[in-house]
Amino acid sequence: MVVLFAVGLYIVLTSQNLLKKIIGLNIMETSVFGLIVTSGMVDGGSPPLLGRGLEAPYASPVTHALVLTGIVVALSVTALALVLIVRVKRECGSIELDELLEPEE
Are 43 and 56 in contact (CB under 8 A)? Predict the structure, then answer.
């Protein structure tokens, strides 16, 4: 998970293309979601279903609900970022940061 996060961070920090930066952010989000899901694992745990008794070890449903909420938020942020990138491309003609930050003459 740490390697995946590092790859995403590297893409965000080194890329000049806005679309590649969004892809890097999505890679970072995926690694965080994986870390959260694995933190909720219990050895020998089962899903919290009715009829199994209270003595059985259960996997935490809170972590899974948190990840599902995070996925929805990440999808919304990605959609908004993509719309903004399309808008920048139409207005400025480029999605490369170095071209966007050049002073106009």
Answer: no
